[in-house]
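Cont'd.
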Amino acid sequence: MDRRTFLSTVGATGAVGATTGLAGCLSSIGLGDANPDVVLGEPDRPFDSEDVPYPAWGERVPAVELPAPVDGGTVAFRDADVPTLATFFYSHCNTICPVLISTLRNVQTHAANEGYPDDVAFYPVTFDPERDTAGRLDEYAEQMNVDADAANWTFLRPASTARAKAVVDEQFGVAFERTHPEDMDMYMFNHGSLTVLVNRDGYVERAYTSTSPDEERIIEDLREVREA
Amino acid sequence: MNRRRFLAAASGVGLTAGSAYVATEGLPGTDADAALPRRVETLDAPGSTGGEATVPTPDAVTVVDLFATWCAPCDDQLAIIDRVRGEYDDVSFVSVTNERLGDTLTREDLVAWWREHGGAWTLGVDPGSDLLAAFGANGLPYVAIVDADGTVAHGQSGLMDADELRARLDALA
């Protein structure tokens, strides 16, 4: 097993001891609960927010503004006046992206059914601007049963591949790289998975890095943040 | 590997690869409240009676198929189950989606999808993905074969073909 594989395994299985030992940044228990910027307490995890490449608990969401190709205009992450859920995807993805988008979609449906559609915003960000045009994103929404016409759902699309790198990888810490599978006639991506819950002041409450985030956990975290 | 990559890997935002509708990390299958069997809402649809059902079916070998309407291979799994089920009169078949029903996917939409894809057995809904979590399913489609005592004999993410389904059912007969 090479080092890279081993490290991936550490991440995937959540081997707390190994991760902590390697990262060397065990947080002090309970210290963060007094953070005035966030509603939720510090999650139980073997590292500090500053030690991970993505915006994590208690950190400000990056000061990024992205075009909204379907809705028109642009969206600045720090300007939202409601709690937001953002995730990162590309529509040709067969693996984890439909799960991530489906999870947001299920939360959107929960919000509609339970009467709080105006108290949350969904920002799915594509890192494949080349193929994810406004028309393509519209079709994708239809396929995934997303209500893309709802005011709370806004697809975001960096203007170029370079901009996608700068924002999705460098600002949000979601690494992605093109692959060319032998059995396919198009490119795909290897990529990380991240869904972030940001409060209305622009601070990250939770960063869910699972490839299949727990929808009910998100709904409950969102409820606490909404009602704060 | 630079520090950034290392941290990404160690904290679970590493690169992942794959070509099926399979997520690489399980749903939280260890929740204390996620034990089997579970009560699931069922829909009035071809082969299915509206109400509630216990999944897996008590005292019966059960094939549990977890699906979503957006998942293309799930259509294929439905067709495979449809092909095999007539050969196993004593086996209970149940398909459940974790999609939350609402304006963009109504009860009627789901029943129409079921009809269109040849579903003809129990159809259930699992808003909140509790059943997925209980099975520890980490991708769709997910197929589980459960014996008459309620023990999960086999569960897998990704398509199960007809021959394998038959072989696994024959092993429990």
